[in-house]
Amino acid sequence: MAQSVSDSTSKYRLENMTGRVRQLDEVVIVGYGRQRKGDVSGAVTTVRTDDMRQVADASFNRQLEGLAAGLQVSTTSGEPGGGVSLRIRGGSSIEGGNEPLYVIDGFPVYSTVVSASAVSGAPLNPLSMLASGDIASVTVLKDAAATAIYGSRAANGVIIITTKSGQSGKPKITYQASVGVQTLAKRIDLLDARQFASLRNEALYDANPALGTHQYLSADEIAALGGGTDWQREAFRSALTTDHHLSVSGGTRQTRYHVSGNYYLQEGILRHTDFSRLATRVNLQSQLNSRLATGINLSMAQTGGRLAPEGIITSLLLMPPTATVYDKVRGGYTLRNPFENIFANPIASLLEQTNTSRSFKLLGTAFAEYTFLPQLKLKVMLGVDYQSGHERRYIPSTIYEGKAAGGIASVGTSEHRSWLNENTLTYTATVARKHRLEALLGLTQQETKVEWVRTGASNFVSDKLSYNNLESGAVVTTPYSYATRKALISTFARLNYQFDHRYFLTASLRADGSSRFGAKNKWGWFPSVGVSWDVSRESFFGPISHIVSQFKLRTSYGLTGNQEIGNEQSLATLSAVAYQFGGIHVKGFAPDRVGNSRLGWESTSQFDLGLDIGLWNNRFSLSLDYYHKRTRDLLLNVEIPWTSGFQTSLQNYGTVVNRGFELALQSHNEWGKMRWDADFNFSLNRNKVVQLGGNAPRYISGLYYILQVGQPLGTFYGAATDGILQPGEEQGRGALTGNANPKAGDRLYRDVNGDGKFTVSADRTIIGSVQPDFICSLSNRLAYGSFDVSFMLTASVGNDVLNLNRQALEVFSGQQNAAASAAERWTISHPSLTMPRAKLDPAPVFSDRSVEDGSYLRLRTVTLGYTLPAGFARKLHIGGLRWYVSATNLLTLTGYSGYDPAVTTAANAVDQGTDQGVYPSSRTCSIGFSVQF
């Protein structure tokens, strides 16, 4: 989390000079170009990169939390280098992707994971290859006027990242370093050994009362147990993180350069997990003559680490505290849960398994720009995105998962190759000083190929060689290989017009041809228009111009698309199969998907109405947006007649609407040596399914969600609890337990259909939604002289979380550990109204007990810094020096019982907000410095 010395006092004062109207002349990065901030008609947010670097994290997209209105960030894994899910103005797709498009130095990239699936656990974030210290600007494009220029890839919004480039002048050397300590942000309260033993006794007694009340352990044996094994304490640790970033920049009037290197290492708070990055970047621009300019942006990164095995969090939560890490009798590790064959010893799994993922990524662009006339420029850009991955896993025969198989090895390699060509022609003209016109024409094409292969073996003579000796395995795993490609060719045009800095017009049109869709639906057209009026420039505004420095009205409308589905989805395909003919194993091919020649992209129309206000020379500014997004032709797997030989077909059906408000407030104040900046972002989004198509009124997603007209995406569907059955109620209310032989202490469920009994299939109802009522953030930066302090608060209100960890921990079977709330379970002496009795073989029902309020208020970052005064810096012959201490995720106020309420294990919009065995988030305290020469 190295922070730049650019936070220095001198720069701060420069940015806070009188004449804040200068903010309107700042340049904003937009699609295929730049615009003066005051000329932008779309909904565009520029993120302060200094605020990003306050957050200690390997992935820059996780650092964006709270920094832009309308942007929601969820954690898919707290693992070092782990994944993150972003939503801009809500999710719209059911079967397709919902992540925004990322454009890095003009190259469109995706956060999609390329993996051979040879390892276990959550994959690494492919965007973690980019060091935040290399980022110069991040721009979030939200409405159609800003995003439609990216056509069929822009329905989920666009995030444009521009990396740092050199400036003319003497070489500047900047070194940034930080070191931090991470700890588990929150523990889950579980039963200790004595409490668990009592619970197991009760469950065994419930199953067979004739054997007595102490079938597992006697009272004396329970008293002698102590607390037992704290599996969370055994698994988690205090972990180090370190970040080093070195850059050199400078140049002449003709040539400018910026070269950087980064080394980042993050140990995981879960033992035997980590992530590292070794990256370098070269940005070079050269003005060869008065007409021709060239440049390259080249980055290379080696990333990777040791991953947590899949299901490890679930295992350590449910492992009985009476079990031990090591078997004192047999020696070695305790193999598994002694009462069930489900969970292996989580510490053995962590420490003995090899589970690594490594990747190399090269991302580069080169351009040449030729000026035919002062008003006419042609730019040609070529780019390449190459990534290779290596995955290795070995489960030794000495632990439970590998014992029966005699050791299990798997290896995999993957390759991602993408090339890009963009050609743009730009014409600018100013007529009679008041009319300014900019026209853009473009042609772009991009092709991507992905290949991977994996294989493995088991039943080894020895574990010594791990995965490096597959041929010695007696059993060879069936090898798998895969290759696919996609291509996109596009033409686009944009017109920007402004009159006298008062009236503004932006219109764009893009045509995309995609290989992903059916032969009859290859091309799509995506137009947009945006207009704005800066009322504060009008002469009648003069009497209040000293108070209201800006008053700008904006509106836009346009179409964008979403093509994020798998490749070849429109084609009828075959898959490899095997059959027995006369005892002979024969391999062949069989159809596995029906074709759809009319399959097309999802289309999103969006209307936006905005207002920008600046007060007192823009010391205080406000941006307010209302938007309405309608996504049609949703990609859905729809049931088709069985006579086709298939159950479903991917088709364009359904409509989803997102509408909402966004508010962004900024305040900049200075009194002598004291300076105070504040930012507040507020977002409210309402999501609703308005059409599903076909005859079916709704679709059930798995066991937990419903997709239904009139309801939002991510609606939980299950049983509603109604208390606990008490003695004497067995005959009257026993039917509401869903059990054939109800007993006092069983959980009661609501009879939704009114038939006098509870059945899972007939009495499910809506029990919550992942959609928040609103999200917001507050940032403050206060400085006095050379000292500065800053903090950020983030909040989400009204969203529910499906806590499948809690569902498992509230099974009081005595076979696995349980939540501490099990101490309040129903017994004869303690007839609880909320917790059921212990039961050896329960039949868990998905209910509202597993859906929790995920609202939270989080102290996201706190930073205290000191910048060496410029005079002292000159005496030391340095350009600047800054020290700081910082904390991330310092405090979270929430009623949620899991590790982190801002979590999801799912990628699509239907089953967001699921917490099941997610690697927990960490609390990080760091110290660092930045020095410039």
Automatic annotation (TrEMBL):
Main location per the UniProt record: membrane
One of this protein's Pfam families, by short name? Plug
GO biological process, alphabetically ordered: siderophore transmembrane transport
Of the GO CC terms on this record, one is: cell outer membrane
Q: Which residues form the TonB-dependent receptor plug domain?
A: 38-158
Q: Which controlled-vocabulary keywords does the entry list? A: Cell outer membrane, Membrane, Receptor, Signal, Transmembrane, Transmembrane beta strand, Transport
Q: How does it sit in the membrane?
A: Multi-pass membrane protein
Q: Does the keyword Plastid apply?
A: no
| Keyword Hydrolase found | no
Q: Which superkingdom does the taxonomy of this entry point to?
A: Bacteria
Q: Which GO terms label this protein's molecular function in UniProt?
A: siderophore uptake transmembrane transporter activity
Compartments, as annotated in UniProt:
Cell outer membrane
Similarity comment text for this entry: Belongs to the TonB-dependent receptor family.
Q: Which PANTHER family match?
A: HEMOGLOBIN AND HEMOGLOBIN-HAPTOGLOBIN-BINDING PROTEIN 1-RELATED (PTHR30069:SF29), TONB-DEPENDENT OUTER MEMBRANE RECEPTOR (PTHR30069)
Q: What is this protein called?
A: TonB-dependent receptor
Q: What is the lineage of its organism?
A: Bacteria, Pseudomonadati, Bacteroidota, Bacteroidia, Bacteroidales
